[in-house]
Protein 1
Amino acid sequence: MTHYEKAFKELYEAIQESSDQALRLRAMTLREAVLDSAEAEKNKPVEELISAGEFNSMSYKDRAKLKNEKPDVYKKAIAGKFKEAI
């Protein structure tokens, strides 16, 4: 279970205990959206990621270039999502 799934499972369970129907419906909708996002994230191709070694050895200039050219890859690297070193 990813951290997304775990966090939203806890949130969903807490909100299910609420008596507010609108809040419960919104929580269910958000939960499904997050679970779909987490599943999509797991299924993204590895080519969209870089290795930790590659990122750590980049100069600030190269990191800025990566940020401008491939913002998604840069954001994932900053978030600590790296492909496995082979």
Note: Residues 46-78 form one domain.
Protein 2
Amino acid sequence: MPDAGRETVRDRNDDDARRTERDPGAHSEPSSGGAEQAVETQGESPLVRRALSAAVSRETPDVITPPLEQPEGPDTPIARAAQAAVAMQNGQEEWPRPKACRVMTVANQKGGVGKTTTTVNLAVSLALHGNRVMVVDLDPQGNASTALGVDHHADVPSIYHCLVEGRPLAEVAVEVEGIPNLLCVPATIDLAGAEIELVSLVARESRLRRACEAYDSDELDYILIDCPPSLGLLTVNAMVAGSEVLIPIQCEYYALEGLGQLLRNVELVQAHLNPELQISTILLTMYDGRTRLAQQVADEVRSHFGELVLSTVIPRSVRVSEAPSYGQSVITYDPGSTGALAYKDAAKEMAYQNSGQVQPAGTEENQA
């Protein structure tokens, strides 16, 4: 008696053979050459070729260049951030320039609120978008000089020589490498004893103002003065020299405690030394959207200062902390990071202040 199971298997094999004769490739395994061809077909577009060949070491590449032929993509936050980073890196977008040079004092006697970081990144953002900027490092620690990659060892001509010896700013200002339109007046360790030496000098509170007035203001759009975390003679010199005060405020409770003292000092300088001084800008820094406290601090500051507070907030960012160790701002270190895009939006708001022009929309993720 024939085995039904074997007959079934034999019949199935015969059917497979007949199908193979009609279609030789029906049961053949795909060759490795076919796989390679499929990969090559997938990589035909310029965008895919760039993605396959890119070597990324941080959040974004060091130099971001758009593809030769890139179709319009979806309007997503990531796409907008990438486009903003490309425009910022290539200087494709120009912002309004003020009618006269704006001398801005970046001050807050509380340390660790982001004064130097704010000064450096706002300056770089403005310079990359067509404004001529000078950073005056008035902090003896010289952190702004370090972040801009400017040499500030003891023998370098610095802001100390302008304040104590009366040297012109033009003799000590140096160009920042890789950033067109940006100058830096470095600070050295000599500045630590400047306050004692200034006490016995004539017009000790206005030494920096005289130096700024002697500089050709037609060559600059902004002078940003990075102050030390104190309210001594150096900070007073900065307030007398400037017409605007920019206050970075960390989104934490302790950051609000010393704000009242700073405001009283601004009023004293207004009354006795510089009646033109005014608080023009307040920037919320180190914002952590995961905490209720950060939002409460932001709401309280906005309710008290109103339109003086920029709509952009600076989030906590690892890239912002890393950049100074490489002698760079976060704008050049990682232009596509959240910190870089936030500072770019804040600088754009500053550029459009009192310009009479309508500001284009910024990055929604950086507003609170």
Note: Residues 26-44, 50-57, 60-71 have pLDDT under 50 and may be disordered.
Protein 3
Amino acid sequence: MLHLLIIFICFSVKLIYAEGVCGDGWDVFHDEYYDICYKYIADGMGDYQTVVTACKGELDSSLPTINSQTEQDFLNQMIVKYKIIENSSLAALKEFAAMVGTYFTTITMTYAINIIQVWLNITIWMVDGIWLDASIKNKHIVWTDRSSGEYENWMSGRPVNNDNCVEMLADEANRDQETERFIRNSRRLIDELKHNQNNQQAQIVQLEKSQVPIDFVYVQMPGQAEPKTLWPAYTWSDVTVTYAGQFFRAEGGGSLAFGKGVQADFAPRLASKQRKDGGDTWEYSLDMKPGVWTEWIYSGTAISGGTGIFNRYLVSSGEVRPLNQAIRIFKRIK
């Protein structure tokens, strides 16, 4: 069912230096020379002079003037933006708006589509007329602000007489066609939503399969869960034996480079000493055992006298090693 409603729109010419300067409830049109603020007011106020006075109270604005097809298109878009008013199912329309805005996190796509179907079946109100800031003289439009009257977009057979006020009307001949186009576009939206739903479901399936990629290696620390507990849908292989008994370090520092094999299994330390006294052949060798002092070894005579100097050596029984405990390593294979 189609209902008609007379509304009016106020506009104010401003130089716009920042977003939101028009204030809440205003729409901004970027003209070639100015930025213009428009405000839609839904409450009908009766005659022409009453709405002119009402606009003066809104930022000292006036009724709209239309000087180009671009501005006409902008007003048409405002009509489309504000004309859909839910009659008896306001709650359903509000629910639709909320659902479409948040369905990614709160509802299924199927439910959102059902809400749209409800929206299409509610009563639609459409704009019947919008007052303009102009008069008619000699069958031509004259704008109150004396702006150019070159642009005119009269309905067939209009204007008829001179008049002190002008109203922008919907094309009665094409009103039903426009309504059908609105419904058709809305149904196309449903098709797009359904298409998007299918794409999103495919993406979700892909994400579920690739949360952990194949060949990912998981290191299980003591007291932590095995990967098959964390990701039961995947198949894991225990590859710990490949790295059995190994410690790992960051690459660099003069040690063996990445991928070049296992570092030698010893640490440099003093392990033996050899001595040779002056003369020809007499030599003396001494092996050093970790944690045990060596025998005394003559190393020379003091400069101040004939007292001999002897040294002995001790090698620690352990090496400096990091604290360590066993880990297990798993690799996803499919």
Note: The chain has six helices and 14 strands.
Protein 4
Amino acid sequence: SSCGYCGGDDSSKSHGMWAHKLSCTAYGALIDRGWRRAGNWCYKPNLGASCCQQYTIRLDSTRFAASKTQRRVLRRLKAWLESGGDKSGGSCRTTRDQMEDRQLARTGEADEASEAFTAACSAVLSAATDDRLPLGFTIRVTPLSSKQAAKLPTTVRYTSPSAFPAAAAARRVATSTSPPSPQFIAAAVAEALNKAAASDEGLNAVGFERAEVAGGHVNFHVRGGTVPGATGAVQEPVAPDTQVKRARKTGGDEQGREVPAVPDTVRRQFGLAEAQQGEQEAAQRVPGLTPMTFLCANGDRCQLTAEMERSQFNEEEFLLYKKYQTAQHGDKPEDISRSSYKRFLVENPFPKSDPKGASNGTDAAAAPPCGYGAFHIKYRLDGLLI
């Protein structure tokens, strides 16, 4: 047949067969012997007689460890998402320079916004008569970093660790055996600000909604959850049960972040019916691929998710495939049909395999919860298939 790589006529040689029913175990053995598959067509390239040699590459996912290059690519992906996405293309160097310029601009905006927030809070605290506030107490408000913003409610945009140095200073000059703790001082700060929130013009001007205490830090909720230049603060991830216990102990939020739903505009664009929720979505989630949430340049959160489903035709997937083939491979749109897409990427000879029906306990334990078969993994950015 003609070669799909170099375009040579009748220069690609292979042995093949149509598989009407093929177990996943048998196909795994064929892959180990250099066989490949396109739909129901299974073939083994004749490397000695073909113009372009094709080699089957397999990876034992249970032993996978990301290389330095792969970790670098992941960091660049995260930076790209946090920058809001650079759709202009260009070289890696150009993209990196553009991201750095945007980061500098956002940093300047964040500094100005946090300074205004600090000034408004300082004005309220300087007039407060709460005896729990140390003499000469000053507050410093900082915007969150993207990593902490991913763990906190969407309305939290600022935090202040000022209770810690204030407590340390109080300990140095304390004459009693029980100087105030950071949590004690932070609670006084939050209470004073919350009392003044309704009437103070300075707090209203910067969008202050309320202050909460979490582990000695004062977290600030902002009306609408959007502040120019806001970015998020570093907070190490903890187990859900630990996070709830810690939140109850310190007064923090135990609900965690909000997960954005698929926008209605996306559903209307592709004519999608309402997707089934709950157990079906949980069953399709890809093991080891947890949703990644980022704070974008415009202050909004964006989420990259991956879901897995058994191979089946989907109009949304076909439209993306058609767009890719025309843009990357130069195929003519009229040559890309739904039937050819089904033959190539949907049809398969594998019967549905349930791990509970494995012939022995070892096979059942080794099988993934979804069983074996042909699957599609769909990556979505804020609900949009990419």
Note: The radius of gyration is 28 Å.
